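Moderator note: this is an archived Q&A kept for reference. The question asked for a predicted structure of one protein chain; the sequence and the answer are reproduced below.
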Amino acid sequence: MQEQIISQAAEAIIIKQGSNIIKRRIKKSYRIPEIDEKLRKLRTRSEAKIMEKLQGKINVPKIIKVDEKNKEILMQYIQGKKLSDFLDSFPISKQLSICREIGKEVAKMHDLNIIHSDLTTSNMILVENNTKTNKSINNKQKPAPELSNSDSVINNNSNFKIFFIDFGLSFHSLRIEDKAVDLHLLRQALESKHYQHWEKLFKAIIESYKSKDKEKILKQLEKVEKRGRYK
């Protein structure tokens, strides 16, 4: 089956294969080969486990197969719009609605003690009601189960869904500090990429962020932001 590279970052290549995505971790020549092999294997395993834990809790691509030997994750291709490219094109009312949904989903992630570590709109896919997610895969591979309300697509009352992608830097943590830093990085991403309305957008996120530790996290967020200002 024909493969098409659609993205290449420092750690991995993203390849579209039919109606699937392959995330392939690339070798690092500057590392000792044995260490590089171990790191890429551990990170592949960790990312897949985190995505599987989030399955049915928030919208993430469906994991189809994990190949630790080749450092690959085969997953569902989400047909939608990269939020970083389209958020600013919407009326402000829709931008705020989207950000409220982001806040709800990030809170669920944090309540599962998962830190994304790269919360930017580049790692969010907007799927509108008239856009279907691709579920079919190569006939030689085991089909992915149909998506349902209790599966990877979590319904909301809006006419869209937000899928979170790229958990390559993610990790588990109970620390309030880590959750606050996650929000701080999201704030910085909005300020940088969506500067026209970033304050309103981040406020909408925080208002809908209903984590069980919200008060503690927001207090720590203030401290994190002060540290940033006075560096």
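Archived answer notes: Residues 131-155 have pLDDT under 50 and may be disordered.
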